[in-house]
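Researcher: For the annotation table, I need structure tokens for Amine oxidase. Please keep the output clean. Sequence:
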Amino acid sequence: MSLKTALILLGLALATIFALVCVLLTRERSPRSCQHLPPEQEDVEDGQSLVFADLTAEEMSQVVRYLQGNLGVPLVEASRAKPRDNCIASVDLQVPAKAEVLRFLDAGGARPAREALAVLYFGKQAEPNVTEYVVGPLPLPAYHRDVTVQKYGGKVPYHRRPVTGKEYADINALIQRELKKAPRFLAACCESDGTNLVILTTAPRGFKSGDRVTWFVLFHNVAGTGYYLSPVGLEVLVDHGDLQVSRWQLHKVFYNGQYFASTGDLEQQFVAGALEVVRLKQPQAGTVLGSMRPRRPPGSPGPLQFEPQGPRYSVRDNHITFQGWSIAFGMNPNTGPRLFDIRYRGERIVYELSLQEALALYGSNCPGGMSTRYLDGSFGIGRFAYELVQGLDCPYTATYVDRHYLAETDTPKTNQNSLCIFEHDSALPLRRHFSDSQSLYYGGLRKNTLVIRTISTLINYDYIWDFMFHGSGAVEVRVHATGYISSSFFHGQGTDYGNRVGPHTLGTMHLHHIHYKVDLDVDGQLNSLETQDMEYEFVKDPWSTQNTIERPHLRRERLEKEDEAAFPLNAPMPRYLSFVSPNPNKWEHPRSYRIQIISFAGKHLPTSSSMERSISWGRYQLAVTRRKEEEPTSSSIYNQNDPWTPTVAFADFINNETITSEDLVAWITVGFLHVPHAEDIPNTVTVGNGVGFFLRPYNYFNEDPSVDSSDSVYFSSEQDPGACGANPLACLSSAAACAPRLPPFHFGGFLNL
């Protein structure tokens, strides 16, 4: 072998060895860069957040067993209970008093007793009523106390109780019996014998306290699609107020613009040829109005969000930490999501942030639509938050959490994966600047946000509830409405109340108004309310006094009384409104958090309405009151069925008390007017149908706290921006190799029903 050949072979061997070493080193490095790193433990709180934790399924069961053995009256399971029976309607956490909790959290005091709130319907008594008991201590109850009079000033009348599933089933049976009295009419109008028609409740139920008389709207029922868009023009008025189910009656019938005394009367008019009938075909699943079945085969998948080294947040029990944020979360079966003890960088910003009520108020020229004012808390905003679909309702790799509830049964139920937590890259800079003057550089920070989300399906509508936590120290609260619109049968001057969206379907106008409670504790419990806005002042220019300048001027004002801090819905309000601390920041301004509302609310119900006081929270886009333990909520589950004598009237909270240096609560209303249109078929889209508010630091810090973020990016003209060490964005190419192995898709939400 020649020397030249040997040198060539040696060179090739060395090159091969070098290549193999590079491959091995690369393979060694990749797994390390993709290893899941534990989130920063910024706030180890040793289980303190459990003071706010929802009841476990076992705790609920213990409360039920205790009540069954210690009340001295027979209890029938609510799913089988008739109006004349006694039953346990619901069991939920009794949130401890704030003073007790703060002594525990902040001053080393004793942990408050863990207790439950049990709601019972007592129908088998001389004076039927609704009673609320506090039961404790958990997990092994030994006492109960009646708190009904303490909370409401008296017993809750029995007619105010929410309608149970059993009551609806008995009403449906009555309607089916009555429909059999009009067989020829049903065959002609609807190609039906009544069994393929489904009923939809309205509410409230009558016109005065004590009424329990409800309009029910009938629709064609088509499997696999929303029946809400297929009204047949028939509506019935049912009196179900008597405690004896056999005495319930159908009082009135409506069809296509006409009223009848009964279904028998309707049949008689039809047979006599005195009734104009719109002959509807039974809809077919593939062509029915509002079908959500895909019309095209699946295309290529869209973008996928993932965390190269695992989640950067931590979830333990009911506690979340994320880049300085600390939040305790939970779910009330009636009012829905609730957050407590929200802290940023160790300082409490919000003690309680909770949904209070959701109102949907309709207009129509049909009786069911025109009388509908749903108060969704009565139906169960939290109870009907079902399993979320991974990859659509929330990112595929989000953390999913189960929620337990006990309502209308003696056995707890679980809505699996019904709350999700994830970090969201909004594809928008939180802040940035490109410098093209003097020195050349770029600096910025991605807007990554922690999101807590749940979605409630309340009959036809789906509400997406979001709570978001930003790196700037801001909290964002947002709700989107989607799902099916509710509709009326199109007849007469129907377009005075909405738009026609199908051959016989009127999309009825309505408003969505949502109410929140925000108990801000800005740098301590004692806060005041300050507003700031602009005025123009006209001044001579000081350098020549020859010209006039219109100079913007900042007008500051401290509000002293609750009446001053009650801002009517849709009226102008100060552009800057803040909860201020008595303590200054470095620049001698009061440490503050600003409330910024984003809303397109409709008009509030006139105060002359007999039911307006039950939703009097809707008078105000913002009302600030002194916090009181006896004013925990702005609404009540009992307001729906007796809005004429409301159990809780928010307007009574505002009585002109002093609000300077006090523990204050902000009550916020957001919403929008919805006039359904063709593009609401099959579903209302979330685009443009989102409202909410921000809680933003305003001189709370000495600078934007996000400057401390490890996600910050900065490079200058003197640096190589492609160097991973200088610019974290240059490292993303290797992070792409860390795409996760996704678990198989799973959905068990239908099993929970």
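Researcher: And a one-line annotation?
Model: The radius of gyration is 30 Å.
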